[in-house]
Specification:
Layout lengths: L1 H17 L12 H9 L4 H10 L4 E3 L2 E4 L1 H12 L4 E10 L6 E10 L4 E7 L7 E5 L1 E7 L7 E8 L6 H9 L9 E9 L8
Parallel strand pairs: 1-3
Antiparallel strand pairs: 1-2, 3-4, 4-5, 5-6, 7-8, 8-9
Length: 196
Amino acid sequence: MKKYIIITVCFLMLFAVSCKKPPEDTVKPNEIDIKALFNTVCTGDEAIALAKENHIPVRFGSTCVCGLEKMEEFYAAVCEKKPASILTAAYYDTESGIGHDLFFCYVEYDGDAFSVKVRQSDVKEPEEIKTYKYLKKYTGEKQPLIRRYVYYCLVNDENIEWEDIERGMVSSQSGAWVDHETVFSDLTGMAYPSGM
């Protein structure tokens, strides 16, 4: 009888441990960090430092400064239809030439569609919140200044090519604009001041 009680107690303990649910606030690694970083209000130069410290993809204009491998990981997950999220940052010289403006781009993919929020680092609310169906990776070469380019763009038409987007950006014709969001890019061969 004693043996039966001990076995029963052990079985119940084992059952209780195996049925224990993970905490409901459990999220993927860095999920809380990138959401918090997206919502941090600070100057452009402070945001650049935060972005680099947190190893998110950062670009100056259209040229990658760091983090291209994280963008590649996100793209690979999306290609496998796995839910994923990423935060990227793009910064530019201010009009006055003193300091920088930084824009955060937070993208969530639920396995079916994308939600994107864009926010300037020194403004509290996102500029826009949009949804898209596809993440496209465009690669190619241009001459004479750029040897190679890669753009990661969210679009709603999977047949859109980079040339269509580019043509729409420079066209003065009504309706030529192609709805898209550039999540990240890298232009190899662009010359920017050292230290950027």
